[in-house]
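Board work, copied verbatim: LIM zinc-binding domain-containing protein
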Amino acid sequence: MERVTTDKASFHKTCFCCKHCKKKLSMLNYASLYGELYCTFHYQQLFRTKGNYDEGFGFSQHKSRWTVRSSTTGAPADSDA
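↓ predict structure ↓
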């Protein structure tokens, strides 16, 4: 079996395909995000749908994790107010 090794993972050559369109990928036409593989066309297209890498790929925005809110006041936990 032939294998492709990239992003600290190994794939069967037949499994190295775009998550969105299932097109077979090569080392020259792929992009990876959160361990998922995409062809460069769909990687760019999914980014453009929301304008960021999180929402475009079905995740919540990472900046929402920056501010932890207190469950009693609704204010940021690290505020001095």
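The mean pLDDT is 76.
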